[in-house]
Amino acid sequence: MPAASPRLSPQATKTRILDAAEALFIGGGFESLSMRQITSAAGVNLAAVNYHFGSKDALIQAVLARQLDPLNDQRVALLDKFEAEQGERLTCEHVLAAMFLPAVRMFRGDSAQSGRYLQFLGRAYTDPSPVVRDFINTHYIQSLGRFFFAFQRTLPDLDRADLGFRLHFALGALSGVLAGGNTQRLIRDFTQGHTDEVFLLSRLSTLMVAALRAPLPTPEKTNIFSDIVRAHDASEAAAQPAGGEGVAHA
């Protein structure tokens, strides 16, 4: 008669559930996640999930907090350090370094685990589920505010709305890349094979700085695009049959 499987401790069971939910979340996002998938992947029953977490929402919040809390703490500590050291000399590059360096160092090992971690970050910051978005926006509201204020200090020519717009799209685009299936290969291609953290950090920051510091469109530039759109609309209208001719009738 085969020996019975050793009974898992409560903490080991909880960790197994978190690991399974995290892998499924990376693969398909919150909305595609089901309790049946989680229990099957973790090798536990539904009662164990309910005992440790109570609900799917609470479980995914625990998954997010397990990875994002330590990362967030490192980011804020680094920003505190740069602000204390630089004072009025703080630059946009310092703020971006505080934001990116902790995550970049996770990739330094070039292992499957580091690639999965970056995929997790990409998924966490791009998943459209209100459960995920609300958790990040409320649980990390103080640190998000700290970074936004630091960007405001270093980019005084941008008003609050325009800075928020640029950060949203620049960080969203980067997160979308990280959420892809072959993050490690993409980053190796992006850095031309370099694994040095300074090289990767400088490349990522250069893209972000370009987006954040780009000059606002002048009236002349706006007029150029206005002329392009008007010309396009005019050509589209001219291509339409006059008086509804050419429209099929029943």
What is the overall silhouette? Answer: globular
User: Could you tell me the mean pLDDT?
Assistant: 85
The CATH class of the largest domain turns out to be: Mainly Alpha
| CATH topology descriptor of the largest domain | Tetracycline Repressor, domain 2
Distance separating the two termini: 77 Å
Would you mind describing this structure in some detail?
This is TetR/AcrR family transcriptional regulator. It comes from Aquabacterium lacunae. One of its GO terms (molecular function) is DNA-binding transcription factor activity. There is one protein chain. The protein is mostly helical and 250 residues long. The chain has 2 domains: 47 residues, Arc Repressor Mutant, subunit A (Orthogonal Bundle), CATH 1.10.10; 153 residues, Tetracycline Repressor, domain 2. It has 12 helices and no strands. The chain is globular, with a radius of gyration of 24 Å. It starts with 9 loop residues before the first helix and ends in an 11-residue tail after the last helix. The N terminus and C terminus are likely disordered.
